[in-house]
Input
Amino acid sequence: MNRRDALWLAAFVVAGAVLRAHGLSTGLWRDEGSTYFDATAPSLLATLREIRVAEINPPGFFLLMRGWLALAGTSDLTMRLPAFAFGLAVIPATYALGRAAGSRATGLVAAACAAAGAPGLDLASDARPYTCAAFLGALATLAAFRVLDARPGERLARLGAYVAAAVALEYTTYTGLVLAFGLTLGALAVALAFARARANAFAFVAASAAVALALAPWLLWVRGARAVEAAWLVPMGRGELPGRILEQVGFVLPTAFAHVQLSIALLLAFAVALARRRSDPALLAGTVALVTGLASEAGALLREPRYAFAFVPLADALVALAVVALVRACAAFASGRERTAGTGFAAALGIALAVTLVQGAHVQAEAWAQALAGPPRSGMRALVAGARAELGPRTLIVVAPDYLGPSLGYYLRDEPGSAVVGFANRYRPEHFRCCGAWRRPDLVAAAARDILTRSRGFERVALVYEPGAVDRGTVPYGKALELRRRLDAALPMLWDRRYPGSLEATGMTLLAVPAAQSRPSRSST
Output
């Protein structure tokens, strides 16, 4: 790296820190609350058991958080600092990946995408495994590229680096297995296309088998013991797969809008870049890995950007490579140095891509504005702060839907006298379970009856709810609003307040328990 590149990279890291800093103080939402309860379980074994039954990620990041929170405490800031640091580390890692796939210019464009791109901003400081997965995904992909162009004396060390990064990645997110699978297919494509890289490619495939086997102990332990259901996933209709794949491409693009035409344009740009650099095994392996990986994610019905986040550094590197190739083609065509049919097509594609980006510039500007001064992610912090006097021992707190339990439990962690019950899962709702109880036909009636019975030992009932609760997948979360109507009809309302949040809007209805129904003492709930 020369001095100019180092200065540019430092500027990108600083810009990335500025764009992400606001996210450190926007209130923890439900998934981050789950991270807190996973990482602060009474023992290491308890943490592993909690992850085993309640998480859709392996234990790596949560074990890291367990050690970090034991040292640094459990404030909003300390909860998010590790994810923030990994998010910044992704920028130089993506630069290195771009350099390996292309040139210095490709590395700098890739680093710019990582610093200011929409996916990185959206999940930049979320106290979840996503930025850690992106960083490790960049390292694993970079190591894979290094293996494919290794000389015989370098192969073993580079294979070791790949195995270490890939195992760390798959123990952070199950998507790591998908990325490793895509890179393995890419290596097989390299073996077919490049005789000089065949030995490296076959060695890489063997190393990938070792990576897959390394996760076997964890998979065997969690097999048959999972309580979390993927019931929120939306089934795929006939003929929807191509659209879902384009949707996945949109998730990893460094823009704040997932227009279908942009996805198509960039896929064509990848093809042009690939055609113009036929001698590069890394580019072929990376393209195969990205396309097959995102297709696998689409087939698994994972329709949220967080699930594809480990692919973002690879996507940024390929986007940068395509953009640099198209800019050079436009310059060559405009100057008359090279006016072939292929350069003309590449130049036309570059112009179309530029027009598409300009059309969405205002959306990207809005994403930057929200990153710099956006609303809180969750309204739960404001709710607990504004209603702390009403959430004491004389109030029965009801969480509906239960997925609000982790963030509520986090902000009530210093109030041990609080009595909290859930809707479908009335025992320890701060440990959210997506359980089959939500589909019981008598759920609302049984919950209302149980809550009203328990309320007799209290003076008030505080119903904490999500104003916009709707059914997701096969989970009828909308039943929470029906429960609210039943409790409103049974108990006098004192007040109702709303607390906005970009990811978790909350509301609270405070209900009085008539003196004739309230007992002077109660047992522990």
